[in-house]
Amino acid sequence: FYQQLQSSYKDVEDFLQKLNDESICKKPPTVGNQKADHVDFTKNEIDKTFSRTEYCRACPWCGVQKKSNGGNGWEPKSDTTCAKRNKKEYYPEKTTTIEILTGDKTKGDMVKKYNKFCNGNGGNGAPGTANGGAPGEKGDQMEKWQCYYDENRNKHASDSSGDSNICVLQKDKQNTEEENDRSYNSFFWKWVTEMLIDSIDWRKELKRCTNNQLTKCNNNKCNNDCKCYEKWVKQKEKEWKQIVDYFKTQPGFEIFSNNYNYALKALLNVEDILTNIKDGYKEVKGAEHIYQMLQKEKSQEAAVAGTGQKNTIDLLIEHELDEADLCLDTHLEDEDCSDDEEDHEEEVYVNNPCATPSGSRHRALANEAAHQMHEAAKTQLAIRAGRRTLKANASQGHYNGKGNVENLNGHICNIDKNHSNATGSSNDPCHGKDGGQVRVRMKIGTPWTNIVENPTLYKDDFLPPRRQHMCTSNLEHLNRNSKGLTGANASDSLLGDVLLSAKSEAKFIIDKYKGGNSPAAFQDDATICRAVRYSFADLGDIIRGRDMWDLDSGSKKMEGHLKKIFENIKNNHPAIKGNPKYKGDESKKPAYKLLRSDWWEANRHQVWKAMKCALKGEKINCGATPYDDYIPQRLRWMTEWSEWFCKMQKKEYEDLARDCGECKKNADLCIKDTRNCQKCDKQCKTYGDKIKQWEQQWDRMQVPYLILYKQAQNTAASDLPSLYGDLKNQYVIDFFKELQKTIKNSASKRSKRSTDAITTDPTTPYSSAAGYIHQEMGPNVGCNTQTRFCGESHKDYAFRHQPHDHDTACKCKENKPQPKSDVCTIVKNLLQGNDGKTQIAACYGKSHKEWFCNNGDVESIHIGACMPPRRKSLCIYNLTQPNETNTKENLRDAFIKCAAIETHFLWHKYKENDDKIEDLLKEGTIPEEFKRIMFYTFGDYRDLCLDTDISSKANKSTGVGKVKINIDAFFQKHGAKNVQERKMFWELNGPKIWEAMLCALSYDTKERNFKKEVHTKLNKNPEYTYSTVKFSDNKTTLDEFAKRPQFLRWFTEWSDEFCTERKKKEKKVSEDCKTDYDGCEKNKSGSCANACKAYNQYITNKKEEYDSQKGKFD
Hints:
Layout (H helix, E strand, L loop, with lengths): L1 H7 L3 H9 L2 H4 L3 E2 L2 E2 L10 H4 L14 E3 L7 E3 L18 E7 L8 H4 L1 H4 L23 E9 L13 E6 L10 E4 H22 L1 H4 L8 H29 L12 H8 L2 H11 L7 H16 L8 H19 L18 E4 L7 E4 L2 H19 L2 H4 L74 H4 L4 H4 L6 H4 L3 H24 L11 H20 L8 H20 L20 H24 L16 H27 L1 H5 L9 H42 L12 H19 L21 H9 L45 H9 L37 H4 L15 H24 L3 H8 L5 H19 L12 H13 E2 L2 E2 L1 H23 L1 E2 L4 E2 L1 H9 L17 H5 L3 H28 L4 H5 L3 H28 L1
Antiparallel strand pairs: 1-2, 3-4, 5-6, 6-7, 7-8, 9-10, 11-12, 13-14
C-alpha cells in the first residue's frame, strides 16, 4: 500500500493537498448559522484549522451589545473599548506608563507572530517608537498604555465604586473620544492570561529544540527561534515589573500590612486561569511545566516557611528565562552537527518475549519516564535557584595547573589536564585506571563482581568494569583547599574538573572500542554511544551523591571532596548564599542533596558537550543530551550487564560452534573418545560454566527489581516514600512510580487488547526485570541463539547451559559407534525372489494412475494440493512399526527398506512396456524421466522424517498418521519436536537412503536376483553420487531439491506427467484420425472419435486439477 501511495504522493504536502480537494474539506463546517474556517492542511495554521466555531469560542473580554445595525441578536464589544469614551484628565504623578508587546494575531506560528519584534522592528533597542502607529502588522508590535488610578475622579456612571482605575492605549489622537481604554482589572487579567497562553504556545513550538527526544540538529533555526523566545521573555519580565509597580499605587493593602507582594500572590490564582484557558481557548497540552511549577512551589512553601516572596508570574518568568538559556546553550550558532537526527518523536515498539502474552507488542517507555523526571528536576531548579544562577562557567574557574582559562570561553573542547585542581599526575583523569597492565575495561569476559570491600551490603549489586575503572582520578584527588575550590568561583572551578573527567572518559571509551583488537561488533556508533551515555549518567550520580559504588577508597575521597566544595558553594556563592530553599541541606542524605541535584541539572548539558568533544574526530553522532542520568543507576547497570552478558555469550557461542562444527555436521564422526567429541565436549563445559556464573548474578538481580517495582505500586496511591533497603533504592521506586504513570498514560492511547491499562496490569513487560531488559534492549538483546531472559524451560532461554542447536553435539560422549550395516545387503535380502508384482512387507506394486485432489487427502491448510498416485501408494510399512523406529539404527533401516521397496515397484511399473529401458540401465544409465521420479520419492521420505509432509494424518492408527506418531516419539524432547535433530538425522542418513534406491534398481525382477555389475556401474557413475546427482535442470542437487516445499514438488511432478501424457494422446489422435485435429470434427465414430473423446476427457480432468493447484499456489 505504501509503495503504491508513494508513486503518486512522494511527500506529505502532496498527500495533504489531496485531502484538501475532498468536498468535505472545501466547505466550511457550520452549526446553525455559525461556521468555522474551511480546512487547509497544507498551511501552517493548525490552530485555525482545528479551531471551534464562533459560537463555541470564549466570551469576549468586554462583553456583548445589541447589534449596531438594528438587527436582532448580539455582537461582541471591541476589547479595546471597554470604558466610556469621555474626555479624561489625569494627574501625571498618578500615571504609570506600561509598554506592551502585542503579537500579530493572524499568525499561528510564535516566531512569525513576533517576527517584527524579534528582528528589531520594535522592542528594546529597536528602531521605531512605542507610540507610533497602530498595533499589529501595521506598526512595530509595541503598544503604549497609560494606567491611572484616582479616587472619586472622572468616575463612570457604570462604576459604583466611584474610583477611576483605567488603562488607556496611547494612539495618534490622545485624550480624545477616539482613544481606547479599559478598566485596570480587565487590562491586568488580559495580560496575565495572554502571557500564559503564549508561554504554552512557545513550549509546544520549541519542543523540537528543547526536548532531547525530538531535537533535530538544526542549529541555525533553533538558535534564531530561541533568541526570539528569550527576547519575548525579557520583554514580558519588563512589562510585569511595570504592571506590579502600578499595582502598588492602589490603596487597600492595609489588610495585608501593606505587603504588596503577599497581596499580589494571594490575588493570582493561575490554576483557575489555566482552567479558563482550557475551556475557552485551546487544550492546555503544553502547560505541564506551569502545573509542575505550581505544585512544586506549594510543596516548597510548606517546607520552608516565609520563603514565598516571589509570586507565580515571577517564578514563571524565571523558569522561561532558564528554558531560553538552555535552548540557546543546546543550539550554538557555530556548532557542527549531523543531519541524521529526526525532528519527530519516534515511538519505539518492541515485541517482547517476556511480556504477557509472550511476544506481544509494547512501547518502550523508560526514556519517556526519565524525560518526565528530568522535567521535574528542571522545575525544582527553577523554583529553588534558577538555571542561570547555578550554571557554572569553566572559563571563570581557577586551576592549579594554571591552564589558560581564556581559551575555554565558548570552547570547552580545549579543556585539558592543565585545567584541573587535582594533585600530581591525577590531573589526568584516567591515571591509574583500567587495572594497570591487565587492561580489563571494555573487555569481553571481564567478570562483574560484587563490590569486594563490602560484599554484604552490595550482595545484589554487580559493578560494571566500565564504572570500576572510570576516568575520575582528578575528582578523587582534588585539592579542595586550593584557591579555585575555596573562593566564590568554586562552582566554576569544579565544573572545569568535571568537564575534564567527562571528556577524558569519552575519549577512553572510543579508543577502546575503536582499537584494532576490538571485535567488529564493538565499533558501531550505537554501541559506543551507549557506553558514553552510561558514563555520563554515572558521573551525574557521583555529583548528586547517588552513586552505588561509594565505599571504596577512591569513591570515599571523591564524596568527601564534593561535600566540602558544595558546602563552600552554599556559603559563598553570591547568588546562593542565604537562599532559604537550601536551609538544612547539609543535614540531608547525601549532604547538600538539593544543591548538588540542582547544580548537576544546571550544568549537565555542558558535561555532555565535553563528552561529545571526544566524538568529533571520529564523526560519531550520539545526539543531544540524553536522559540516562534520570534512569536509576541500578536499572542502567542491569541493562548494561545484559549487554555485556550477550557479548560474552556470543563469543562463547562462536567458540562452541568452532569446536563442535564437525559434531553438528555428522554425529557419526563425533562419538565418545574421538578427537571431535573430546574437543566439542570440552567447549560445551566451558560454555556452560561461563553461563552459570552470569546466571547466578542474574538470579540475584531480579529479586530487588521485583520488590522495588511492587513497592512502587503499593506506594503510588499514597505517594509515600518507601523504606526498603538502602536510601538509594528510593530513586528506583520514584522512577518506577513515574514509569507506571507513563505506562498508564500511554495505555489510554492504545487499544484495550494491547494496552498496559493500569499499573498493576501483568501484561506490562516492565513488571519483571527480564521484561525491562527486552523492552529497552530489544527482543534479542544482542545475544546469539539463546535470546530470552525468561522462561527457563524455553529452548531459547538465555541461561540455558548449552545452546539448543548444540544439544546433540554436546552429548557426543553418550554416542556409541553404530553397528556397520551394508545397505545393499539389506536391500538384497529384502527383495530376494520378488518379481516386482508380489507384495513386500505390506507394500504393493504400482497400479494407480489418477491424481488425488480430494480435500481429505491433505491437511486443511493445504487444501488445493493434488497428491501424485506414486505418493498415494508410497511404501511406509516399516515406518508404521514402533519396534522398527525406536532407535536411531532401526529408524535408519526402516527408511532404507521403505525407499528400496518403493524404488523396486516404481522401476518395475516404469519398464514393463519397454524392454529397451532395461538395457539402458544395464549400461549404467538411469532414464532421465525415472531419475526425476526417484527425486520426488526421496523428497517425500525426507518430509516424513522432518514432519513437513502435507498429507492428511487424521487416522493415527495406520498409514501416515501412524508414521508421524512413531517418528515424533523418537525425536520427542523437552515437550517439543527437535527440528535440529531431525535435520541432523537426515543429513547423516540421507546418502544411505539414496544408496538403497540405487541398490533396488540393481535388482533384476525377471531373473529375481541382485545384479552386482549393474550396481557397480551406477555406483561409480559420478552423475548418481548423492552429493553430485542433479535434477533434470542440471543445476539442482538432490539435497537442494528435497528441501523444496512438498506442494511445489508435487505441482512440478504433475506438470511432468501432464506434458508426457498429453503428447501420447495427441499422437493417438493423429494416428487414428490421420490429420491432427480436423478428424475430431469430421469423424463421429470409430477409433478417431474414441481417441478424440479420450483426449478431450483427459484435458477436462487435468484442467480441474490444474485450477485446484493454481488456486493454492496463488
